Amino acid sequence: MLLTEIDHIAIAVRDLEAAVEYYQKAFGATIDHREVVESDGVEEVLMKVAESYIQLLTPTNPDSPVAKAIEKRGEGLHHIGYRVNNCAEALASMIAAGATPIDKAPRPGSRGTTVAFMHPKGSFGTLIELVQE
Ligand code: CO
């Protein structure tokens, strides 16, 4: 098994402050990491749950893929991050299994990770992100 953990569940929201406040009030959640990833056009907040994270994502500009996703489908579940030991190996394995890569090679993600995204088409409707810490 190449997957070692559910790294994160990413939820796309319009108002990041309101969403964070909701998670704090509802669950007593605390912010473990906050980062603007300009190359992806997102600002994200990570809240740790055991060894995984809930990731609240909001677009930083109207051309961001997350902005387009919210426009098309509304707020909600955006992608699942699967943690792996070796992103390149998992990417090759997924492609061999018929997945459609968005990233042809591993690239830098937030909090110093190495990541690769796979299109929902070819992965049974789920946008999958491979995350190597
Ligand atoms: Co992610």
TrEMBL record:
The keyword Cytoplasm does not apply. GO terms for molecular function: metal ion binding; methylmalonyl-CoA epimerase activity. Pfam families: Glyoxalase_4 (PF13669). The keyword Transcription regulation does not apply. Transmembrane segments: none annotated. One of its GO terms (biological process) is L-methylmalonyl-CoA metabolic process. InterPro entries: Glyas_Bleomycin-R_OHBP_Dase, MeMalonyl-CoA_epimerase, MMCE/EMCE_epimerase, VOC_core. Signal peptide: none annotated. Residues 5-133 form the VOC domain. Keywords: Metal-binding. Belongs to the methylmalonyl-CoA epimerase family. PANTHER family: METHYLMALONYL-COA EPIMERASE, METHYLMALONYL-COA EPIMERASE, MITOCHONDRIAL. This is Unannotated protein. It comes from freshwater metagenome. The lineage of its organism: unclassified sequences, metagenomes, ecological metagenomes.
